[in-house]
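job 3f2a | input accepted
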Amino acid sequence: MGVNVIGPLLFTQLLLPQLRAAAASSPKNSVRIVWTSSMMMESTAPPGGYNLQDIEKGGTKDTHTNYATSKAANWILAVEAGARWGGDGILSVSESGKSEDEYLSYTA
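job 3f2a | predicted structure (108 res):
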């Protein structure tokens, strides 16, 4: 969780003043945050994306589930970032990978 979720969130928060300044003088939706995710989260993450008890105890013994949970958390961050910073002109996007010829993504 730390490397895949907390680190990017903290880095993004450090960049917020610059992102807001850029958004104020840029075309609509040209300033964006891209949260990396994975198609693996669809099949491997617990229902709802995460299990709080697993996170509190440091994860599970299944590395695939831990990875998928961290990528689901990035999807959740994309939604929250869009709600918080979308009004500042910052677009929040979660990319979960490529499926044949089109990318699966969420834009908040």
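job 3f2a | The helical segments are 2-24, 40-44, 52-56, 63-85.
job 3f2a | closed
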